[in-house]
Design brief:
- The protein is mainly α.
- The protein has a domain of 126 residues.
- The chain has 4 helices and 2 strands.
- Strands 1-2 form a two-stranded antiparallel sheet.
Length: 181
């Protein structure tokens, strides 16, 4: 059996796909690391400074979740800022490229003649030199923590509404319940 040799284009494609998978795993890895470290930190602080043996399990779990979401905001916010900054940079880069390739030509009124062979005059042609177009394009470096847009959006929704529910309903009821006992 003789196998067909792999072309360099196929090899480059395979390497690029592998790098994309590694980068996605790294960004997911940073996110998972932040989530797990935040949970461990919240649990350790509750164990260390809370009187968790005196309270019921439901109260301890509610306080753990409240602290966890509070700390999660602190650890996830840099990931969100870097992802948003990168996406805004890419959008700006796309707009610059689109504007560089689209030229605006304003032609004079039909029928105006320049006096040479009946050709019309083109006025106000605005074309930037290629050097200026190349300088105006920014290079956007992809952050190590880039996640799909919907991941952080859904996380913020869960954290926001859970915090609201805990702050205004669950924890005050549990506080009243534990002070009565």
């Amino acid at each position: 059996m003789c196998e067909a040799p792999v072309s360099t284009d196929t090899f480059v494609f395979i390497i690029n796909e592998a790098l994309i998978l590694i980068l996605f795993a790294m960004s997911s890895g940073v996110f998972v690391f932040d989530v797990v470290v935040t949970l461990v930190l919240s649990g350790w602080l509750l164990f260390r400074y809370g009187d968790w043996m005196r309270h019921r399990v439901a109260v301890t779990v509610a306080v753990l979740v409240a602290w966890y979401f509070s700390f999660l905001i602190i650890f996830i916010l840099p990931l969100d800022v870097s992802s948003t900054t990168y996406r805004q940079c890419k959008d700006l880069e796309q707009k610059v490229i689109k504007n560089a390739t689209t030229t605006v030509l304003e032609a004079s009124q039909p029928g105006e003649d320049d006096g040479v062979n009946g050709t019309s005059v083109v006025a106000n042609a605005t074309l930037a030199p290629p050097q200026q177009q190349a300088l105006s394009i920014q290079h956007c470096e992809q952050p190590y923590s880039l996640l799909p847009e919907n991941v952080l959006l859904n996380l913020w929704r869960v954290v926001y509404w859970s915090s609201q529910l805990l702050t205004w309903l669950v924890l005050p009821l549990m506080q009243s319940y534990t002070t009565v006992l």
